[in-house]
Write a structure and sequence with these properties.
Layout (H helix, E strand, L loop, with lengths): L1 E10 L8 E8 L2 E6 L7 E6 L4 E4 L1 E3 L7 H4 L4 H4 L3 E6 L15 H5 L13 H10 L5 E7 H9 L8 H16 L4 E5 L10 H8 L8 E5 L7 H15 L2 E4 L13 H13 L4 E5 L4 E5 L11 H4 L2 E5 L11 H8 L3 H10 L7 E5 L3 H8 L4 E3 L14 H16 L5 H8 L1 H6 L16 E4 L20 E6 L2 E5 L2 E2 L19
Parallel strand pairs: 1-4, 1-5, 6-7, 7-8, 8-9, 9-10, 10-11, 11-12, 12-16
Antiparallel strand pairs: 1-2, 2-3, 5-17, 13-15, 14-15, 17-18, 18-19, 19-20
Helix pairs in contact: 5-6, 6-7, 7-8, 8-9, 11-12
The structure holds zinc ion and copper (II) ion.
The site of zinc ion has 5 residues, from loops.
Length: 498
């Protein structure tokens, strides 16, 4: 007898093929049968889909959930979207490697949300996360900012040969333990202090594993195109696959440049280089506020598009634009920025900045190698960017159903099989007999992201069921707490014995 059966569903298999009506049976964590309607045997648990879509569970290719797996193992904000796997360790910040004697927040850039634990390497991190029974699966990158901070602190200089060897050693160990690649965040400290050659030499350490180089590029605004050139050359020199994170052109004078940037990517693809990208479906970015301002020379024009998300120093500012706070307090915009960032814990402020053109999102989503990545920062206090709770349903509602930028099967392919293949999630990303049963049942005509900037922690509607490794993890709005997530190893299944 099967463990679980979905009957009467439109199966979107994740390959981009059109949906077909059928039944899907699950046993021992795997998809046991994908058959014509009515041809499936009995199961312990039966779900009648009433014609809803059954797809592979969505894969969030750009996550910062390293700390969330320890702090919020239920991962409700992802599970509710139909996300069954994430790729963490992005933007150069990763849980591992770590030195437990050093404050983790400094090496994690503060965006990994409450990262604590007694581990030093990826295997130790995986063990600790698994002990907490995570709801979803996690694939990890190893971050440049993290290994650089561990090796040479916040030093603004080139590494010595010995330091470079140490950093490469951290990357090699993480790759041996199952990481899928190396990430950089070259706008952040200390990544921004590094020259192109340093990044290429470290990225080369993933080449023997055929891993990826994923990057938050050095510039996403005035110098976007130069930054794309740098990323392509780093990956070329290192001999690795390039993945460009959260592709955008930031700031009004740069809007439209994503077209030129994608043309560079297309030229590289034509020349035989391996390149992929991801995007989030919102016109605002989000990150640690302190990374975007130089207090000696405040960029007032930028401050005008900033909204405060989380602010331990001034909880009353959360949800407000900097311009509103300036009016309320009767002080200048620059003084608001200074007030926040110089306060105690001011450096922990997370902001949202409206810097992206709607048309650029559509240009991005129209590209065949564009995946979906939330870039959600899992700090649940305050008012986080709505992408944390809404990214995947928003692509399906706004860009598929309303705007018709891409078809439903194609959107699902970019959220599943393309992501699984690129990031090495073995036997996931397709509804296929014998593969892991990571699945989402959703209503394509009603699925909607409910999270907004004013009310960002609302779960989406239209996601009816989510299965992780064969276990029914969410059903008709109920998180079932089964904790069936796995820690994934690049192209090699999973960490541990489950
Ligand atoms: Zn980033
Ligand atoms: Cu990021």
């Amino acid at each position: 007898m099967l463990d679980l059966a979905f009957r009467n569903v439109e199966i979107l298999d994740g390959t981009g093929a059109v949906a077909f009506r059928g039944d899907v049976g699950i046993q021992d964590g795997r998809i046991a049968a994908v058959v014509e309607e009515g041809a499936l045997g009995a199961a312990h648990t039966e779900i009648d889909g009433d014609g809803a879509c059954l797809a592979p569970g969505f894969i969030d290719t750009h996550a910062h959930d390293d700390g969330a797996f320890l702090r919020h193992p239920d991962m409700g904000f992802k599970l509710a979207q139909g996300v069954t796997s994430v790729v963490s360790g992005n933007c150069g910040f990763s849980a591992a490697p770590a030195d437990p004697s050093v404050n983790a927040t400094s090496a994690s850039g503060g965006i990994l949300a409450g990262l604590t634990g007694d581990f030093t390497d990826l295997a130790g991190y995986f063990d600790l996360v698994l002990a907490g029974k995570p709801a979803i699966n996690n694939m990890m990158l190893v971050g440049h900012n993290t290994i650089r901070t561990l090796t040479m602190g916040m030093d603004k200089r080139e590494p010595t040969a010995a330091e470079l060897a140490t950093m490469r050693g951290h990357v090699e160990l993480a790759m041996e333990q199952g990481a899928c690649g190396f990430s950089s965040g070259l706008i952040y400290r200390p990544g921004r202090y590094s020259l192109t050659a340093e990044v290429a030499e470290i990225a080369a350490a993933v080449a023997p594993f055929d891993g990826l180089y994923a990057t938050h590029m050095r510039n996403e605004g005035d110098r976007l195109l130069e930054a794309v050139d740098e990323s392509l050359s780093i990956a070329q020199d290192a001999g690795v696959h390039l993945h460009i994170s959260h592709h955008k052109s930031a700031g009004k004078p740069n809007w439209g440049k994503v077209g030129e940037s994608l043309a560079k990517v297309d030229a590289a693809l034509q020349a035989g280089q391996r390149v992929t990208l991801d995007v989030y479906p919102y016109t605002a970015g989000s990150g640690r506020m302190i990374e975007y301002f130089n207090l000696d020379r405040i960029n007032t024009a930028f401050a005008e598009v900033v909204r405060i998300a989380g602010c331990p120093a001034f909880r009353e500012f959360e949800g407000k634009m900097v311009t509103e706070i300036a009016v309320e307090r009767g002080i200048s915009i620059d003084d608001v920025v200074r007030l926040i960032l110089t306060a105690e814990k001011g450096e922990r402020t997370i902001c949202i900045h409206f810097i992206i053109d709607e048309a650029d999102i559509e240009t991005n989503l129209a590209h065949v190698d564009m995946m979906v990545g939330s870039d959600g920062i899992p700090d649940l206090r305050g008012r986080p960017h709505p992408r944390l709770f809404g990214t995947f349903p928003r692509v399906l509602s706004r860009y598929v159903r309303e705007r018709g930028v891409l078809s439903l099967p194609e959107a699902v392919r970019r959220m599943t099989s393309l992501s699984a293949r690129t990031f090495g999630l073995t036997e996931r990303g397709e509804v296929r007999e014998g593969w892991y049963a990571d699945l989402v049942l959703f209503e394509p005509s009603t699925i909607t992201d409910e999270a907004s900037y004013d009310d960002p922690k609302r779960e989406p509607t239209g996601v009816r069921a989510v299965v992780v490794n064969g276990q029914l993890a969410l059903h008709e709005g109920q998180h079932r707490g089964v904790g069936s997530g796995a820690m994934l190893r690049y192209r090699q299944g999973m960490h541990g014995t489950r």
